[in-house]
């Protein structure tokens, strides 16, 4: 019985140590919001949930866009490369044969 108890305790300890070593990332990507969140000083619109997230985490106050349209900017931001390097130039362009690394696979490399 003690062997099983020790095995469970050791397993839980290893699982907790593994969980703590991985980053805890919540990425919320909004488009066309500008600074219209109260955590950025907006007084007309109240956004208490975003304010709490901003207070407990990292709030960015600058964003430089690599493209003039949202879909190309979103593609570049998510992939982490200039959108032209994988064929995105406007709303309709793209490469269906592109099989880049997913965000989940990128986080697997962080261990």
From TrEMBL:
UniProt cross-references to Pfam families, sorted A to Z: Sulfatase (PF00884)
InterPro entries to which the protein is assigned, alphabetical: Alkaline_phosphatase_core_sf, Sulfatase, Sulfatase_N
SUPFAM superfamilies for the chain: Alkaline phosphatase-like
Domain Sulfatase N-terminal span(s) in chain numbering: 23-89
GO molecular function: arylsulfatase activity
Keywords: Hydrolase
Transmembrane segments: none
Record-stated family: Belongs to the sulfatase family.
Protein name, as recorded: Sulfatase N-terminal domain-containing protein
Source species: marine sediment metagenome
